[in-house]
Each structure stands twice: as structure tokens, then as C-alpha cells.
Design goal:
597 residues; 25% strand; globular; alpha+beta
């Protein structure tokens, strides 16, 4: 995170200067100050709300299409310290590397203080309550944005930043103040504005700084300040449904977000249609395609809860019954677990159950809607009978034969001499009729110019392909494809296919391992999607790259060789799990990290 902050502070001025020219240094200072106020939240991520503070969702009008809220910075900091990664960074083995970070930040702090007049420490201490950001799309009006920042006891720092910003704004904008119920609202109108000039509007009330791109929006927020207004975003049914479905051990979570896709699309089309009226016709296609059924997407994130090291939930609000393209994405819930051929050495396993037949029907109906009934069926029949072709019928020989169960398995590759290890990947597609699909494969392999080679192995036919090699080895990499155990199996390493056909596994079965059992207790009995991953396997690759010097190309000020050995990290890492389940009102996605026991 500190590295990100450093890059942000140094890169922004260069890029902005390039865009606006050297004669716009005043604008650069304005942008830097306001960006600093916003990005001060990033390392802290959340805010501590006063007991009497009204949640920002109650300060907003209903026309919200994007909303992000981080209610409590101090709580988030405390929780982060209790996570596996937070505990890891406190390990004494990190002392040397933390010294590198401290030295790098000293330079950043000096640059910030020279530009803004406040230290990095003072800047990071600004957030002290809720932070929220919203995009409003009122009907027939220009979209507006609004940001809330509770600065708590840091009024002196905020005043210094705002004073510096206002001095820079005077060069290119005119200000106007008005008072509403004892609160001064300041509006800066930029001199180079067109018919509808851009504005920056802000006010401070209690310990909250509110900034917006629209005066009416700012006034609307102020009118709802007591939390008793009857017309607010907090009363949005879809937003409340998302909060309900995505609640965690700690209710709404440490981070909450919401998006109304159709609101954003409508606003974008309206803006474009003002210049090109034909653009409005695009809205007429969305309903027949079924896109308008997607009413909202949102979720929450939490850390160091009673049951999880970390957990994120996402809910898509989808109006039922679905139609059109929405029916392409139907994933019925079934019982899912790793088959015995997936070994305990697996670094990641993913399984989904897709209604492929339903997806085909949905695509067929959409195409036929525009091209006429029977268009797709006639075209597929024509291709299947084409002279010189493989005589394969997409619907009868492929779609009707696959089950829709798709599994992806990754496991660390075995290192050879000085060659870097390459992860081995297996993709398995369930089959309803393995013999019929084998016949289809045989037809394809007999076509002229087929790129693979076939050979028999343990009563099965393996199709081998040579893969491009990016590791620097002179030895070609052979991928394989075969049918076995009622599945079409593909791997970037043909030896994995051979082992599966022999019934061998590299170690014990994953399904019987303690690591997998640690996530099972958090999985539903039936799910559309189930996933498992090992943090240690995923992090090690990145860790070795950073420690080996590759990260230094991006952050040369930090000596990454002082990172501790990976074994120091490994003991803190726990398995991750995830799942998706359909709901009467949409679909829920959950991803979590288990707690170390």
C-alpha cells in the first residue's frame, strides 16, 4: 500500500502537466490538493463515525447509480491488524524490509509537505468518520458526483489544504457563497465553461466536508442533514436487498458498494443523444435482449470476523423471469466437490454447473428474433452437411452431449534444473454420452490440416498438441486432450492426462485433505459455482519475483531483496473458498479466507 501511495504522489503531477501544459501549474496544485484529500482515504480505507452522524445513504436523494461507503477507518485498521496479512507484517522478520519502506516514505513525505504544506502523517490522519462517494443520475439532468469526508479532529489540516486549493482556484474560476440554515455553500464556476459550465461545490458542516459537481445536489444533501427526510437513497429497495443478502458477521461490513447499471446506461445514452438523437434508439434494444432485468449489483467486504479472515459478498438483483441474453447465464445449483483425481497438491480448483442447453436456446431465440424464426437451426444444419467438412452437428453432436459441469484444476509445476516451474492446468468438461463425443472428436482429427497428433493410451485416445514455450527451454511443451471418466479433459501438460487415465494422483485426494475440509464447513450443500485455492501457492510466485528483483523495476527506491524468506510468510496463510448460489431475486457470490486455527 505504501508503494502505491508513493507512485500516486509522484506520477500524477507528471501526467497532468503533460496533458494541460506547463502554463497550467496553478491547476496542477488545485488537482493535487483535492486529490490528496481523497487519496488520504486509501491507506486507511474507512472512517470512524460519530454516534450522532447520519449515514451518508440517508443524506443522498434516490437517484443514485453508484455508491461506495467505508463507514469506519479506525475499526478497519484494527481489524486489518488482526488478519493473517496484518499479523504477518508485524513479524520481526519484516523489520529490515519495513526499514526500506520507511526510508522511501520519508522522501514522499518531504515532497508532499513542500507541495501541500502538511506532512504525510497529517494527511493520513484526516479521515475520522465515514467516507462515501456517489454518482447521481437524475432524470433529464446532467449526472453529478458527491463525496463525503468526515475529518473529525483534523480541522486545522483540512483548513490548510482548502486554503491552498482556493488560492489556486482563483486563477481559473469564480466563487460565489450562499448561506443555508447557517451553513455556507461555496460554488466555484470555471471561467472556460461552455453553456453548462463545470462547477465545484462544497460545504463543511460539523466535521463533514461535502464536495459535489452540482449545486442542487449539494443543497439536496444539506436538506437531508437531520436524517429525517422521507425521500432518500437509503429507502431504495434494491439497495436494501443487497445489504440484506450481503450482510456478514458484522452486519453491513466494513465496505459497502452499489451500482445501478441501467441508471448509468440511461444517463450515458441521454448525454450522447443530446448530440446524436439516433443514439436514443439503443435503449429500445435492451428490453428485448433481457438486459433491463439486471436491476442492481452491489456487495460488502469484511475482515477479521468471527468466522473468516476476510469475506466479500456480491449480489446481483435480477428481475424474474429472465429472458433473452440473461438466459445464457443460468447455473443451476447442484452438489459439487472435487473428484478423487484432484490431488491435495492442487493450488486451485474451480467447478461450475452451466445450463449449456439453455444457453444455446437463449442465443438461438435472440438471433431468430432479429433474423427470423428457424434461422439458427437452418444454418447449423447447413454447416453439418457441408461437403468437405467433418459432418459434425453443433446441436446434436456437441450441445446435447455435454453435461455443463466444468472443472478447472491448477497445481504447481515441477521444476527441472534451472527452468522456471510452470503451473499445470486441467480443464474437464462433463459428458452425457462419452462414446458419442469420442466419435465427434475422431471426425475432427481426420480432417486435413488437423494440428494435433493422436495416440492410444490405456484404452483411450490422447490428442497431443505442441504449445509455444515461453520459459526459455528448448524442449517443446506438449498439451493433451482425451476422454476419460465421462469427461473431456484438456491439460497444458500431457503427462497429467496420462496420470488421470491411469487413475494416479500426485498425492492424496484434495477432497480428503484438511485444507479442503476447512472451507467445506462454510459451503452450502448445493451451489452453482464452488472454488478452492491455496494462498501459499499463489503468493509464492509473486514473492519470489519481488525478492528476485523484478519489483525493483517499478519501485527502485526499495530493496526488495530484504524481504524475509517465503517460509516466514507461508505459516500465516490459510485456504480460500468461494461459491455462488441462485436466489429468487438474483444470484449471490461469496468469496472468503479461512481463519488460522
Amino acid at each position: 500500500m505504501t508503494g502505491f501511495v508513493r507512485e500516486t504522489q509522484t506520477a500524477v503531477p507528471d501526467s497532468v502537466s503533460f496533458l494541460i501544459g506547463s502554463n497550467m501549474n496553478r491547476w496542477l496544485r488545485v488537482g493535487t490538493v483535492w486529490l490528496a484529500l481523497a487519496t488520504a482515504l486509501l491507506p486507511r480505507l474507512s472512517l470512524r463515525a460519530e454516534d450522532e452522524a447520519v449515514p451518508t445513504d440517508r443524506l443522498l436523494p434516490p437517484e443514485v447509480s453508484v455508491y461506495v461507503s467505508v463507514p469506519d477507518v479506525d475499526e478497519l485498521k484494527a481489524r486489518f491488524a488482526k488478519t493473517a496479512f496484518g499479523t504477518l507484517t508485524q513479524d520481526s522478520a519484516f523489520a529490515s524490509f519495513k526499514g526500506e519502506i520507511t526510508k522511501a516514505l520519508e522522501g514522499v513525505s518531504s515532497a508532499i509537505e513542500k507541495e501541500l504544506g502538511v506532512s504525510l502523517k497529517e494527511l493520513l490522519e484526516i479521515p475520522s468518520g465515514e467516507f462515501a462517494f456517489a454518482v447521481l443520475t437524475p432524470q433529464g439532468k446532467k449526472p453529478a458526483v458527491v463525496m463525503f469526508l468526515d475529518f473529525g479532529d483534523n480541522e486545522k489540516t483540512v483548513d490548510a489544504l482548502m486554503e491552498k486549493a482556493e488560492k489556486a482556484l482563483e486563477e481559473n474560476a469564480e466563487s460565489d457563497d450562499e448561506e443555508i440554515d447557517g451553513t455556507k455553500i461555496t460554488t466555484w464556476t470555471f471561467k472556460n465553461g461552455a453553456d453548462k459550465p463545470n462547477q465545484l461545490v462544497y460545504f463543511v458542516k460539523n466535521t463533514m466536508l461535502v464536495a459535489s459537481s452540482d449545486l442542487d445536489t449539494a443543497k439536496g444533501v444539506l436538506a437531508r442533514w437531520d436524517g429525517k427526510h422521507s425521500d432518500t437513497f437509503a429507502d431504495n429497495d434494491n439497495y436494501n436487498l443487497i445489504l440484506e443478502k450481503c450482510s456478514t458477521d458484522d452486519e453491513d461490513g466494513l465496505f459497502v458498494w452499489y451500482v445501478n447499471p441501467m441508471g448509468l446506461i440511461q444517463a450515458a445514452v441521454t448525454q450522447v443523444a443530446a448530440q446524436n438523437p439516433q443514439a436514443a434508439l439503443a435503449m429500445g434494444f435492451l428490453d428485448p435482449l433481457g438486459i433491463t432485468a439486471l436491476k442492481a449489483i452491489g456487495g460488502s467486504a469484511d475482515m477479521a470476523t468471527e468466522n473468516f479472515d476476510g469475506i466479500t459478498k456480491t449480489f446481483m438483483v435480477i428481475e424474474q423471469p429472465t429472458k433473452g441474453l440473461m438466459n445464457v447465464f443460468q447455473f443451476p445449483a447442484i452438489e459439487q466437490k472435487p473428484p478423487k483425481w484432484v490431488s491435495t497438491n492442487t493450488s486451485a480448483w474451480f467447478s461450475l454447473n452451466w445450463d449449456i442447453a439453455g444457453a444455446y436456446t437463449a442465443i438461438e431465440s435472440v438471433v431468430d428474433m432479429f433474423s427470423g424464426p428457424g434461422t439458427v437451426a437452418a444454418r447449423i444444419d447447413q454447416i453439418a452437411q457441408q461437403e468437405g467438412g467433418p459432418k459434425v452437428h453443433l446441436k446434436k453432436d456437441v450441445i446435447d452431449v455435454v453435461s455443463g459441469r466444468i472443472q478447472v484444476v491448477m497445481e504447481p509445476g515441477k521444476k527441472k534444473d534451472d527452468e522456471p516451474a510452470q503451473d499445470r492446468v486441467v480443464v474437464a468438461l462433463g459428458l452425457k454420452d462419452a462414446k458419442k463425443f469420442q466419435a465427434t472428436l475422431t471426425k475432427l482429427t481426420k480432417m486435413a490440416g488437423f494440428p494435433g497428433q493422436t495416440r492410444e493410451f490405456k484404452g483411450a485416445t490422447i490428442i497431443e498438441f505442441e504449445l509455444p514455450d515461453f520459459s526459455g527451454s528448448l524442449e517443446p511443451k506438449m498439451a493433451g486432450l482425451a476422454i476419460g471418466q465421462e469427461q473431456l479433459m484438456f491439460s497444458n501438460d500431457v503427462t497429467v492426462i496420462e496420470a488421470m487415465l491411469r487413475g494416479d494422483t500426485d498425492g492424496d485426494a484434495l477432497v480428503d485433505s484438511a485444507a479442503y475440509k476447512s472451507i467445506v464447513e462454510h459451503l452450502p450443500a448445493k451451489a452453482s459455482i464452488v472454488s478452492y485455492s491455496r494462498n501459499d501457492s499463489q503468493v509464492k510466485t509473486l514473492w519470489d519475483m519481488a525478492k528476485g528483483g523484478q519489483a525493483g523495476a517499478f519501485l527502485p527506491q526499495i530493496d526488495f531483496s530484504k524481504l524475509p524468506e517465503f517460509d516466514t510468510v507461508k505459516k500465516y496463510l490459510t485456504p480460500n473458498g468461494g461459491y455462488s448460489v441462485p436466489d429468487k431475486k438474483g444470484v449471490l457470490f461469496v468469496s472468503f479466507g479461512t481463519k488460522k486455527k
